[in-house]
Amino acid sequence: MQLSIDSLKEMGAFTGAPIEKEVTWKQGDQELTATVYVRPLSYLSAKSDLLAMGGKGDAIAGRIAASICDAEGKPVFTPEDITGEADPDRGPLDGNLTMALLQVIGEVNGMGKPTS
Fold it and tell me: What angle (nearest 5°) sits at the alpha carbon of residue 11, between those of residues 7 and 17?
């Protein structure tokens, strides 16, 4: 097989459309639920991971920003939105929501599931 865009498409080597998931988290005494779209791990997440390893970003914030998107695949967050640097008055993303987003990112990417 020769490597080409067409052969890669046939093999499913592109991430395609984001996957719709429901995320639930507790904020104080209240349980909140929202619909999110998760892009499977891709070039964007690999780039973010490499930048974080080089000391040029936060790995967790980068993973969330590269993975959580709208239905068309456009990012919802920047890493700075998640860490709170984008708006110090707003602050960082809630910890429970952060963990819930990481959980759905893991679900979409099959992390933690045994392989057959």
Answer: 110
Integer Cα distance of 59 and 62 in angstroms: 5
The CATH number of 16-108 is which of 3.40.50, 2.60.120, 1.10.3470, 3.30.2220?
3.30.2220
| Placement of tokens 């969330």 in the chain | 64
Phi, psi of 37 (to 5 degrees): -115, 135
| Domain ranges (residues) in the chain | 16-108
Q: Stretch 12-40: mean pLDDT, rounded? A: 91
The model scores a pTM over 0.90: no
